[in-house]
Amino acid sequence: MVEKLGYALLIIVAVVWLLGMLAGMFIAWPYGIVGLIAFVGIGLLFIKVLRERLASKEDSHYSKNVER
Question: Alpha carbon of 4 to those of 1, 16, 36, 48: distances in Å?
């Protein structure tokens, strides 16, 4: 229960922080476009990695069956 609450709070803070960064980039519009492009690029790479991880049967096998 405490772990789930901790993760929920961490996600909320991360989302608020990212929205603040995004708002700051729009406020500094002509110069903020560089940060905005980087922000979008990192987001696209994150989505790609997450999609590959969820689709990989080999990763799922090792995370479930191999002890560390």
Answer: 5, 18, 31, 25
